[in-house]
Amino acid sequence: MGDVIEVSELTKRYGNKTAVDRLSFTVRPGRVTGFLGPNGAGKSTTLRMILGLDSPTAGSATVGGVPFRQHPRGLRHVGALLDAGHVHGGLSASAHLSALARSNAIPRCRVDEVLQEVGLAEAASRRIGGFSLGMKQRLGIAAALLGDPPVLMFDEPINGMDPEGVLWVRRLFRRLAAEGRTVFLSSHLMSEMENTADQLVVIGRGRLIAAESVRDFAARGTRRSVVVGTPQAAELAALLTAAGASVEPEGSAGAERLAVTGLPAERIGALAFENRIQLAELTTRTASLEAAFMELTADSTEYLAGQPR
Question: Whole-structure pTM over 0.90, yes or no?
Answer without folding.
Answer: no
